[in-house]
């Protein structure tokens, strides 16, 4: 069951924000020499099987050391203007991957606010993003199966935006339509299915809104809950397609988006952030990881080096259970939940086994202590 409270200015059908005469002036359409338009937003690694444990350790250490993704040089950055940066790169704050508690009771209230923000996505890279609540990804949402969700979207951006909950069953033409700047829109839905799901902006053109940061994860606990786990983390894999602007900051490169050639592939919005600040657990503890692939285009092949997933659940649904997986495939727009118990202390890298993306920032560590 769902009900909607419409804003009186809400368009009845989707509208495009790619108009040269648009009343939303913060999108600039330009054309490069290749005649493909570019949006500018102002506001090992194959671990070869070694023959000895020592060789494997040396290889892993060397690979991790070499995957520090930093700012491209001016000479090599696509779309660069050869101008020095005049804008300070915002300090990066590690995205908290811990699963927050779900609200109790029959009703959950969720509000997301669209904000345009300058964020860091890698060392030295200040990027103009469109966000939910000011972060990429947006906040981790956590509810329970059977709860009624009262949702409100507030648009503080400069163009129309919308919401699309993959966990909801609700008419697209009623509740997923673009909301004009300065407006809000509310509707109600019921979390009927358990699991881990993507939410994202679906305003046209959806791929550009998603490539520019408008996505997040929502976890719906089964009615009787998941089995206890000592640690529960949420990872959202996504891509950034960048071009350097005249002030040294970066915006979205539409040609790269359309060609699916990302500069960065990351977990929770920043390249290699869990390499320097690992996820933690103790030896013998059950670790649960919810993985969402926001894409918009790359598949994820999620793998933890030195470990096996004792249990995996496609889309996080307890009915979709497999045992002993080495790698789980997560398509764009999809998700999975994995559980593992690591018996020995040490460092355990997690990656997408699509290795070309590891060098683009899709690497983190689980630090296991005694």
Quick recap of the structure?
The chain is mainly beta. The protein has five helices and 24 strands.
Distance between the termini: 48 Å
Order of helices and strands: EEEHEEEEEHEEHEEEEHEHEEEEEEEEE
State the shape.
globular
- Structural class designation: mainly beta
Radius of gyration: 21 Å
- The total beta strand count reads 24
Low-confidence stretches are 1-60, 68-82
Major sheet details: 6 strands, mixed
Tell me the β content: 35-45%
Determine the mean pLDDT.
85
Helix content estimate: under 10%
Number of DSSP helical runs = 5
Which sequence of strands runs across the widest sheet?
15-12-17-22-19-20
What can you tell me about this protein's structure?
With 370 residues, the protein is mainly beta. Helices cover 9% and strands 39% of the residues. The protein contains 5 helices and 24 strands. The chain has helices at 53-66, 172-175, 206-211, 254-259, 273-276; strands at residues 3-5, 27-31, 37-41, 107-122, 125-132, 141-144, 148-155, 164-165, 184-190, 195-200, 215-221, 231-240, 242-244, 250-252, 264-267, 279-282, 286-295, 300-304, 309-314, 321-325, 328-330, 335-341, 346-352, 363-369. The strands form 6 sheets. Strands 15-12-17-22-19-20 form a 6-stranded mixed beta sheet, with no helix packed on it. Strands 1-9-7-4-5 form a 5-stranded mixed beta sheet, with no helix packed on it. Strand 2 and strand 3 form a beta hairpin. The longest helix has 14 residues, at 53-66. The radius of gyration is 21 Å and the shape is globular. Residues 1-60 and 68-82 have low confidence and may be disordered.
């Amino acid at each position: 069951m769902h009900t909607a409270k419409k804003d009186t200015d809400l368009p009845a059908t989707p509208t495009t924000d790619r108009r040269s005469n648009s009343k939303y002036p913060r999108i600039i359409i330009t054309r490069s020499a290749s005649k493909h338009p570019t949006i500018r937003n102002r506001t090992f690694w194959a671990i070869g099987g070694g023959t000895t444990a020592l060789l494997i350790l040396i290889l892993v250490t060397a690979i991790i050391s070499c995957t520090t993704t930093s700012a491209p040089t001016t000479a090599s950055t696509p779309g660069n203007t050869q101008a020095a940066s005049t804008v300070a790169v915002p300090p990066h704050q590690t995205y908290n991957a811990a699963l927050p508690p779900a609200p109790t009771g029959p009703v959950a209230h969720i509000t997301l606010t669209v904000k345009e923000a300058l964020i860091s996505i890698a060392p030295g890279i200040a990027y103009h993003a469109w966000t939910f609540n000011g972060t990429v990804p947006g906040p981790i949402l956590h509810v329970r199966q059977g709860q009624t969700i009262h949702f409100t979207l507030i648009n503080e951006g400069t163009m129309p935006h919308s919401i699309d909950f993959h966990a909801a069953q609700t008419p697209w033409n009623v509740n997923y339509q673009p909301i004009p700047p300065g407006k809000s829109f509310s509707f109600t839905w019921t979390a009927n299915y358990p699991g881990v799901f993507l939410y994202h902006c679906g305003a046209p053109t959806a791929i550009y809104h998603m490539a520019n940061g408008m996505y997040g994860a929502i976890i719906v606990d089964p009615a009787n809950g998941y089995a206890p786990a000592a640690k529960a983390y949420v990872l959202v894999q996504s891509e950034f397609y960048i071009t350097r602007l005249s002030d040294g900051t970066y915006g979205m490169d539409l040609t790269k988006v359309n060609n699916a050639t990302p500069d960065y592939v990351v977990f929770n919005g920043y390249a290699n952030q869990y390499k320097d600040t690992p996820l933690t657990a103790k030896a013998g503890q059950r670790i649960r990881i919810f993985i969402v692939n926001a894409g918009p285009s790359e598949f994820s092949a999620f793998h933890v080096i030195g470990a096996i997933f004792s249990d995996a659940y496609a889309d996080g649904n307890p009915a979709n259970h497999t045992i002993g997986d080495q790698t789980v495939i997560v398509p764009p727009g999809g998700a999975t939940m994995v559980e593992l118990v690591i018996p020995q202390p040490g460092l355990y890298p997690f990656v997408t086994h699509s290795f070309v993306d590891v060098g683009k920032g899709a690497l983190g560590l689980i630090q296991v202590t005694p």
